[in-house]
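Box S2. Input/output pair 1.
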Amino acid sequence: MNAVSLKGLWGRKLRTLLTALAIVLGVSMISGKVAFKNDNSNTAEVPAFPASVLTKVRQLPDVAAAAGGIEDQAKLLGRDGKVISTGGGGSIAASVDPQNDGRFNPLKLVSGRWPVGSGQIAIDKHTADTKQFAVGDTIGVAADQGTRRFEITGIATYAESSSIGSATIAIFDVPTAQKLFAKVGKFDGIQIAAKNGVTPEKLVSEIRPLLPATAKVKTSAAQTAEAIDDVNGSLGIVQKFLLGFAGIALFVGAFVIANTLSITIAQRVREFATLRTIGGSRRQVLRAVMLEAFVVGAIASLVGLFFGLGIAKGLNALFVAIGVEFPKGDTVFATRTIIVSLTVGIVVTLLASLRPAIKATRVPPIAAVREGAALPVTRLSRFGPIASLVTLALGILLLVYGIFAGGLPTASRLLALGFGTLILFVGVSLNAKRAVRPLASVLGWPGARFGGTAGTLARENAMRNPSRTAATASALMIGLALITFVAILGAGLRASFGDAVDKLFVADYAVTAENGFDPFTKQAGAAVTLAPGVTAVSPIRGGDARIFGDNTQVSAVQPNLAKTVRIEWTQGSNVPAQLGKDGAFVSKDYAKKHHLKLGSPIAVTTPTAQVLHLQLKGVFDPPKGGSPFGDVTMSAATFDAHYSAPRDLMTLVNIRGGVTDANTARLEKALNAFPDAKIQTASQFKKTQEDDINLTLNVLYGLLGLSVLISIFGVVNTLVLSVFERTRELGMLRAVGMTRRQVRRMIRFEGIITSMIGGTLGIVVGVFLAVLTTQALSDQGIVLAIPWRTMAVFIFGITVVGLLASVLPARRASRLNILKALQYE
């Protein structure tokens, strides 16, 4: 029986290939991974400590060597004078001291020499290669006091990495770095080597008493472990994110595999009956079908494993195209990846084939002599409608529980949402066959009306086997449901943010970082005040702090904030003008969470371990789309006195005459010396933020598109196998006068109708998920907004999907030999 199964696989090459292809695409999402680490805090400040600590450490008898260094951020400028975009990768600045820290320096010089002196710099190889810089060239750096030019003396890499993504590295000698970042007489870190025979723990105990409160000492093992934990934490988030999409792809693939196997087994009723007639038992038939599934699953999983490398490169190219570049290293093809990929692919294939295989065992031997015999109905089939409705209800209940239940731990909530969504998809798929006939009747009407006989037959074919049509459409439904959900959620985010900008933003202009998000030097705002006609400049600064036991963000404002930002106060009025040295204001939700009222004390611990004792002087009600303020906002004077190198999140500007081309030119001229800052109107500011939302949406669309790709092959599979099944029927149609063109048109209409059924179900399910989610997040400012144009694009796209998926099956159907088709069994 095993030999019969294997020989049968070889004899049905095309059908075997179609089944395998779905598995290949599913498995490729497990082996193809892209991961990166990006732990930049938008306002993070790591406090430096006195350089005298290095002197004390070097004097310890057990210290063999020690070197201090500076770590900060510096934006490099391209030849056009604009900031080199890092795509979120960071603008790293570091110091080197070749004479003292050679053993500690992770940077590797690949050409030139290390910088020595205030006018010299070394840069990373990736930037040098992509921006055409070489040793001896000059490059600009966006410094706090304006643009500075440096001579490039060296090109370096980070350890052995050819690239750390799109991040840039600016390397200075220690004195230059200390001056550039306002850390003269200070270091950000010290690396220490012990003498032979001295344990790390002993050296740590000697160093600890020498350190200020803001510094701590760790052994290299502890530092390495912490770094690995940080990397694993960051990679874990990304890997879970990508594995989630891999799970979606496999889930869709399981539908395609099960549907394909169900069709092929239904077409082999007489074959299985013949096996039963010549003595094959039900167990042997089951084993034969499962062996076929195992062989196909194993081969396809192996192909998918290597195909996954291509998927990884494709995803990386997608991210690079939208402005996000990941670090590059050697390709790692781990044993664990191979085992997991093969196991998952084979197991999913076996599970998907189990139900069709059990059906195959129920074929009676008498079916071998019957014309057109079909698979028998199971005893439990009468419970199908009830089970499908219960499954659908269970999925909805789990979703409602996960979204609206109060006090749930995050893990439990995510678990309920994940399983609820999967069960919802299964429930919709099980019930979809009841909607196929009415949907096919409506969606197939244009084809029947304008496509003549071919269009009418296509509609009737889609309605003839609703279970098969529903199974094929369900794979498309899953992908499109998730894409619709993301589109509606993104539209809600854009709408809520736009509403917040419209309500808050009363200034004429805003100065922001070049990328619209990073903090920038406060000197840029000071430069704007010198522009002719400026009547008000109101910066909003940001930083980190620890308040009520939590690490959080704080902000700072000038007394004239009311001239540029409209704030709805629930307690207090014109609060920014009354903050003084110890005042603060918070949002009403933050006040409620921490039981604050006017006059309540708020202890704010800064990164330098200073404690600011503030009093609450105002509570405001932010719009649903959020506000530019941190959890606690103080006066700019207090912030500047306790935060080193304070930076602005944005600077709001009023100017006589409002927004005009002339005023825009004046403000841009004032910012000429600060290339890391740009001037924006309210509409431009809104667009910048929306572009970031769109960037995220594009990434999600790209990943979800892989599940749609698998669904497309599901439609191809179904149509091709349908052509096999209907070979005699197609031969008869050709014999009575149907032309090849009409046959092609009929198959194309079938593909379009099937795709549109899946699209309709997907859009309905996606809207349902979006309505639930936006309702749950309404207190976070997310509103329900249906992007009608995007929905129209989806509908058009799903029509094109059906058309493309039907091209090859239609061509095959039209080329059938009429005489052979009439004799086909």
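Box S3. Input/output pair 2.
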Amino acid sequence: MKTLLAAAAALALASPAAAQSASIMPILDHIHLNVPDQAQGVAWYQKHFGGQTMTEAPDRLMLGDTRLIFLRNDKGQPSSGSALDHLGFSVADLDAKMKELEAAGVKIVNPARDVPGLFKLAFVEDPWGTRIEVVQDPEKLGLHHVHLRGPDPAAVLAWYKEKFGGDTGKLKDRIDGLRLGGVWLLVQRGDATPSEGHAIDHIGFRTTSDLSAKTSEYKGAGVKFTTEPRPLRLASGVTVNFAYLEGPAGAKVELVQR
């Protein structure tokens, strides 16, 4: 009986933020990229950074627990400088990967360099304007991080933590971030333009509760929604429900119920 009472007391004392994020899966569900040709987008990323195609729809790759989804848009603007500035992929041998990318004609933005206490890193750009950081972090290969941008990085991270959960920490004990499954959310300080219409259009999180109820809950907490909940039937025949909300610094964020 004492154990049950203690558990009940702990639940009663749970913080509002913990209660709010309890029905959100603490993983990054998907990253949505704008490309003029979805099949080319799938092929390019699978060739250079891996991932598995999916039966639910042909416009996506699965990278760990996160989908990379390609939206047809031939007017996407470069991601650099937007609220969703760039993606990070980790490889086992950065020098070999950079030689491979250069030989394939991939645009090299910054060549490989070693950052003491962190890891070796380089920057490239996909054919449609997504800035990509390629790192050599043996602790986490594959999709490594999404780097956000905003005037107050601590406030940005706190907002995502409160709304979507995850584990706060420091990447290599140096860089503040939020870990969602195996993917880090990192934030660099700076003014940002809204992400919608840029090469990285938006990121998505999954709720396990009713989406309409979750939307009402978030609205009550002052979150601005730009698209109300609606259904979407995928190529596989499965229907999901989704809505869009506005994140810090103009980041477009999707909330999806699968």
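Caption for Box S3: Confidence is low (pLDDT under 50) at residues 1-19. The CA atoms of residues 223 and 245 lie 7 Å apart.
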